[in-house]
């Protein structure tokens, strides 16, 4: 909790912290939107390359026996990036809440959505690595 001298401080400081918190929330949700696109593109690339690779295998011009590299790389990269941005977001939110003198009991909605997207990415990676 804040002391009496901190309560008498300039209210513009609290407004600046609140604006920063809201800007960080918007930025995290923009990352979520971008990563969902990356994971979706990775799945689409994987399925497209798998069909193309199957045609190359049948014609005998395939270089390797696995056509999952491009889509899997994009999906793994997107999921890793989501984990990294979520960790950084949590650390920054914790610092700003300490500046405000508040302790948040619930995580912000951006964190819950980010964890959900990480789980979707992990499931996509798992299913893309299954044989056959």
Shape: rod-shaped
Helix content: over 70%
Number of domains: 1
Unreliable residue runs: none
Gyration radius from CA atoms, angstroms = 22 Å
Mean pLDDT: 84
Determine the structural class based on helices, strands and strand pairing: mainly alpha
Q: Order of SSEs, N→C? A: HHHH
Main sheet overview: none
Our measurement of the CA-to-CA distance between the termini, rounded to an integer number of angstroms, reads 58 Å
Total number of beta strands? 0
- Beta-strand percent range: under 5%
Give your account of this protein's structure:
With 132 residues, this protein is mostly helical. It has one domain (8-129). 80% of the residues lie in helices and 0% in strands. It has four helices and no strands. The protein has helices spanning 4-7, 11-59, 69-100, 109-129. Helix 2 (11-59) runs antiparallel to helix 3 (69-100) and helix 2 packs parallel to helix 4. The radius of gyration is 22 Å and the shape is rod-shaped. The N and C termini lie far apart (58 Å). The mean pLDDT is 84.
Per-chain topology:
Blueprint: H1 4-7, H2 11-59, H3 69-100, H4 109-129
Helix pairs in contact: 2-3, 2-4, 3-4
Give keywords.
132 residues, 4 helices, rod-shaped
In brief, what are we looking at here?
This protein has 132 residues and is an all-alpha fold. It has 4 helices and no strands.
